[in-house]
C-alpha cells in the first residue's frame, strides 16, 4: 500500500547544469508510483532513511505557492522549466492531490515556458490549461513509450497508461500550439529493441503528428542496476545472461550501441516527422556518447 508523506518545499524549481535544453527542474513529488523496473531516478531516495521510492511518496503540498514566489521575483528570467525531470507529475498520486492544475495556473500567469514528460493519460485532465499555456508561451509535451507490446509494458512499467493511451495523449496535444515528442526510452536489449517494436513506435508517432523522437538505450547505474536485474532474474530469467553480458559497466556494449544507432537512423529516414517548430529540440540533438541521437 502506498504511503504519502506531505511536506513543504522552500524552492519549487531547482537550477540544473547539463546538456539538456532547459535550465530548471520542478518535481511535485519525490518517489513515483509507476513502478518502472528500469527507473533511473532511484538515486533521489538514497539519502532518505527507510524510504521506498515506489511505495513511499513525498508530496510538496505548497508547490504552487512556492513556484509563484519564485516566478514573481525580479531575478527570474522566464527560462524553460522541466516539469517532472525526476518523477512524473501525473503519477497516481496526482489523482489524489491535484497539484498540477494550480502549478499550470501559475505558469500561465507568468507566461513561463515548460516541457512536460509523462507516462500517464491523466495529463488530458489538464488539457484546457495546457492549451491556454501554449497560447502565451512555449510548451513541449512528451510521452515516454517503450513498447507496443502490452504484455511487456505491464511487466516493465505496470502502473503507467497503455501505449495506445499514451499515443492518444500525443495525438490530442498535437492539436495545440505545443511541440510534441516521443521518448522511446529506455530501449532494453533483447526485450524492446526489435526492429518491429522500434519501427512501430516511429510509425505510430508519425500518425500522431509528433515533432521529434528521443531514443535512448537502457543505462544501469547504482540502485537501478540492482532493481532491474532482480526483476529480470525473477520474471524473465531466460534473458538474464543475454542482457547482463551486454552490461559489464553501466552502459551497454559499444558494438551493440553502434548497431542500434544505425537502425534508428534508418527509421528516422523512413518515418519523417511533422514539420512544426521545434521549441526545445534541435533537428539532430546528441546528448552524450552513451546516449543515442535525439531526433
- Whole-number tally of structural domains: 1
Query: Helical percent range?
Result: 25-40%
- In CATH, the architecture is Alpha-Beta Barrel
How many beta-strand runs?
Answer: 12
User: How far do the termini sit from each other?
Assistant: 39 Å
**SS-based class:** alpha/beta
Give Rg in angstroms.
Answer: 19 Å
- Approximate shape: globular
Largest sheet: 7 strands, mixed
Strand order of the largest sheet: 2-3-6-7-8-9-10
Average pLDDT score: 90
CATH superfamily: Aldolase class I
Task: Give the C-level CATH assignment.
Answer: Alpha Beta
N-to-C series of helices and strands: EEEEEHEHHEHEHHEHEHHHEE
CATH topology: TIM Barrel
Could you tell me the strand content as a percent range? 15-25%
Counting H and I runs of at least 4 residues, what is the number of helices? 10
The low-confidence runs, each spanning 5 or more residues with pLDDT under 50, are 281-295
Amino acid at each position: 500500500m502506498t504511503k504519502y508523506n506531505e511536506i513543504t518545499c522552500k524552492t519549487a524549481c531547482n537550477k540544473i547544469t547539463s546538456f539538456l535544453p532547459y535550465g530548471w527542474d520542478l518535481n511535485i513529488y519525490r518517489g513515483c508510483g509507476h513502478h518502472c523496473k528500469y527507473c533511473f531516478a532511484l538515486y533521489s531516495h538514497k539519502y532518505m532513511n527507510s524510504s521506498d521510492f515506489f511505495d513511499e511518496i513525498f508530496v510538496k503540498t505548497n508547490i504552487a505557492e512556492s513556484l509563484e514566489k519564485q516566478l514573481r521575483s525580479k531575478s527570474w528570467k522566464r527560462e524553460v522549466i522541466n516539469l517532472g525531470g525526476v518523477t512524473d507529475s501525473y503519477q497516481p498520486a496526482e489523482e489524489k492531490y491535484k497539484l498540477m492544475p494550480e502549478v499550470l495556473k501559475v505558469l500561465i500567469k507568468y507566461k513561463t515556458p515548460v516541457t512536460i514528460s509523462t507516462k500517464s493519460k491523466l495529463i488530458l485532465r489538464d488539457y484546457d490549461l495546457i492549451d491556454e499555456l501554449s497560447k502565451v508561451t512555449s510548451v513541449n509535451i512528451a510521452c515516454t513509450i517503450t513498447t507496443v507490446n502490452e504484455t511487456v509494458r505491464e511487466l516493465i512499467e505496470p502502473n503507467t497508461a497503455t501505449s495506445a493511451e499514451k499515443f492518444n495523449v500525443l495525438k490530442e496535444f498535437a492539436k495545440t500550439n505545443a511541440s510534441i515528442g516521443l521518448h522511446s526510452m529506455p530501449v532494453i536489449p533483447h526485450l524492446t529493441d526489435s526492429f518491429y517494436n522500434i519501427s512501430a513506435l516511429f510509425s505510430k508517432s508519425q500518425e500522431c503528428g509528433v515533432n521529434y523522437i528521443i531514443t535512448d538505450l537502457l543505462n544501469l547505474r547504482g540502485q537501478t542496476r540492482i532493481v532491474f536485474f532482480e526483476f529480470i532474474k525473477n520474471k524473465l530469467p531466460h534473458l538474464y545472461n543475454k542482457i547482463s553480458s551486454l552490461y559489464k559497466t553501466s552502459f551497454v556494449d559499444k558494438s551493440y550501441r553502434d548497431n542500434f544507432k544505425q537502425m534508428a537512423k534508418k527509421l528516422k529516414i523512413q518515418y519523417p516527422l511533422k514539420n512544426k517548430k521545434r521549441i526545445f529540440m534541435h533537428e539532430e540533438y546528441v546528448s552524450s556518447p552513451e546516449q543515442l541521437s535525439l531526433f
